[in-house]
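Note to self: keep these together.
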Amino acid sequence: MEMFADHPGILNLKKQAEALFDDQLQNWDLAKANYRSLQKVVTKHLPFSGQAEIRVQYNPERIYSTSAKVDPKSVSERPCFLCPVFLPQKQKAVPFKHDYLVLVNPFPIFPRHLTIPYKDHIPQQLSGRFSDMLDLARALDDFVVFYNGPRCGASAPDHFHFQAGIKGFMPIDDDFEKPLKVLLGEQNGSKIWSLENYLRHILVFSSPDPQWLEEKLSHAVRVLSEFDKGHDEPMMNVLASWNDDHWRIFLFPRKAHRPWQFFAEGPQQILLSPAAVDMGGVLIIPRQEDFDKLNLQSSQDIFSQVTLEAEHWEQLKSALLKSFYDGS
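Structure:
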């Protein structure tokens, strides 16, 4: 691995990332071939609620991530593909905050897809690193930065990392502007909404104040931890983006990692392991037979299995609404 630039400031990160893409797609054969293959990706649209849709992407190159074994034994027995010492020789990096490496993801979902691992081998856990996520979203304002929890789609649960994909790819970016959201509370222009009748449960935080966002997200995580005791972090996916003058955070609380269809055998199997991009409305399918048979009914069933159950969802919303009155 080679460092592509020397300690660029946050304000220069966007330009450095663009230069990194240009270099890697020209000089790294694996990345060049897989980004070219995106032109062959097939997508179908599944409208629902009269206003929103699910997109299904047939992307064979994602088979390794979708089917990754993430149990502790399997993880411990393989070299960590995010540690600098194991990165491919032709993979270059841009440093971020001296603590992270910005990498071109060689197995892309997005036309521009980044992986941003921490330089040291530490577990995937968002606590204490949410401010880094906000800084990344601000610096990479053409991207949505996302986090997959260690039990919610992270193919490297043993090594902390973010990812980022170009804006406008996930339906949720547009669907948020439609009348699907319910305002839960507002403080000095900072707001929390829930998305309703959207197949999965989603909280949306919007604010120009990073401290407010960190406090509210931390409060939501504490509530979720009460539903998911015995783990260092509750099950969740998070998206973050900078939009002109404020951040927008999507929090997807989860109750399961993979649906029963993932583990089924024969014609009932659908190899789908929902992570942040799937929860954002693009189901990534690496097998043609699964792409062909996945429809709105089976998509709705899969979402119902992995999203937070209705009782806990109502408790979470009530706790956040209460926080606007008691200052927590």
